[in-house]
């Protein structure tokens, strides 16, 4: 089959790789009909996630048709149309029983590697390094889905792939980012990053009762899209975000701040930007935490920092003193996608949220290298790339 593989820093190729096979009774094989390039894929592309190897099949946002099931899979049948969540979860361990599916204790066969980096291992993930399981991803014609009796969500044919594909990751992630804020009616939320996850966090914050949501970004077309879904745009390249947010909130700051930017955030005018870029380039620091620092300094006393942007390791000069002395609450995590898929599917059906608004490009799978480049460099108005194998 054909698949998108990692071929070195800032490089992917579409190559022929072996077809996936059933390896466990709880496996299924899915013929991929739609797959997407995620912002967190760019961290792999840019070489900032350890234990990624040349030839690894990338991609963790995908859906398709079941073409084979293992003997232990009784909830799916050949021909079923499914969306596959990006965390792989067994459904039976202590974490899964608490619906903390991205912390599954049984799905990462390389848990020992993750423990060396993180202390304890999270769940295995599709297409996201050997530290997180070494599972082949879904930017391919076919994918093996472990624990298929737990993860995939069956979809009726009345909804298009574009409407439901993002249930695999970014829609639940944005929603969880807003949910972790415990938003009360009338509160104000600020979101750093107006990419696809940030846009879904904005829409979710409104659904959960926010009276105003502010979108912080520097790319005009992304800010225009944020404004289209109801947010008030702030361009950090043109103004001081901290001062702007104080002006908007009578000096108090937003009630909740959501970091949907993650480890490659930057602001060329910020004093620490050059410091972070040099240290990250020399692999002395894995993160550029500009957005998170700014969110911490901007949030009102007693407010919430919700972190859904991906971080991989270590950062410098995080204002922990501000967090501690001002009673800020930090909530974070890879999304527990399985928890949110069904409720969000219902919201899509009711018309509460339209996931298709983030899609800017449809490409063929063999155009993946082009898709990665325009997504990374924010060219051609690229917000989200969907590929159809």
From TrEMBL:
Sorted UniProt keywords: Membrane, Metal-binding, Oxidoreductase, Transmembrane, Transmembrane helix, Zinc
Transmembrane stretches, start-end: 189-208
UniProt domain Alcohol dehydrogenase-like N-terminal: residue ranges: 25-153
One term of GO molecular function: oxidoreductase activity
Coiled-coil ranges per UniProt: none
Residues covered by the Alcohol dehydrogenase-like C-terminal domain: 196-264
Gene3D superfamilies: Medium-chain alcohol dehydrogenases, catalytic domain (3.90.180.10), NAD(P)-binding Rossmann-like Domain (3.40.50.720)
Membership in a protein family: Belongs to the zinc-containing alcohol dehydrogenase family.
Name the UniProt record assigns to this protein: Glutathione-dependent formaldehyde dehydrogenase
Species whose genome carries this gene: Mycobacterium palustre
